[in-house]
Amino acid sequence: MSDITKEEVRERLGNIDQIRDIIFGAQTRDYDNRFYKIESDLAMLQQETRDRLDQFKAAMTADLRAAVEVLDKKLKSHHLSSQEECTDLRQQVDRLARKFSNNIQTLDEALDTQSTSLHTELAETRDGLQQDIAALRDLVLEETERCFSQLRDNKVSKDDLAEMLFHLGMRLKGSEFIPALKEKVDSSKKYEDIPLYAVRKHSEEAVHSSQG
């Protein structure tokens, strides 16, 4: 077999990008789609949580206003027998206001903590996947360059090269890279349907506390 140029090698092998796309392009697109869905679901979760928190704040504010109005009416409609009774009623109003304020602060802190945790875990998952995909690409490029080198040195035929690329694809599909990537992406799917349990729990506790 006579010496062949690099261009002829490329013609025999086809476009390198096409080879890479055939070997792991589907997995990369699948990861991109899943990341997009995770980020979209996270944004929806945060908006839903914020809306529920705003509604709860509005309800608590309305309850507080109603309680204050009731106590004010008592102060105005009843002739209190002593200054102590008046002071006691005003202290009740102050305690009620502080209780609602603390409950709202607790809800805000819970929401911030949940959002920060979700963003951190999502970023760590994305970084890990990007590193694994980069390692997979390096492996493909290394094997492809080795095939190029052997073809340039006339050590393999076109049929042998095709078989080598086929075995490379099978190795990648059976190697630790693809299962590891799939496991990471599957584990990240837990964010797709995150319940608002924490916020609901805080809301229920706040309501029970205010009623107590």
Which series of helices and strands comes N to C? Answer: HHHHHH
Instruction: Report the uncertain regions.
Output: 175-181, 188-204, 206-212
Please give the alpha-carbon distance between the first and last residues.
91 Å
Tally of DSSP β-strands: 0
Report the CATH C-level class: Mainly Alpha
Explain briefly what this protein structure is.
With 212 residues, the protein is mostly helical. It is built from six helices and no strands.
Describe this structure in words.
The model is unreliable at 175-181, 188-204 and 206-212 (pLDDT under 50). This protein has helices at residues 6-13, 16-77, 83-152, 158-174, 177-188, 197-211. It is mostly helical. It has one domain (6-211): Substrate Binding Domain Of Dnak, Chain:A, Domain 2, CATH 1.20.1270.
Topology:
Elements: H1 6-13, H2 16-77, H3 83-152, H4 158-174, H5 177-188, H6 197-211
Helix pairs in contact: 2-3, 2-5, 3-4, 3-5, 3-6
Give a quick set of tags describing it.
single chain, 212 residues, mainly alpha, Substrate Binding Domain Of Dnak, Chain:A, Domain 2, 6 helices, disordered C terminus
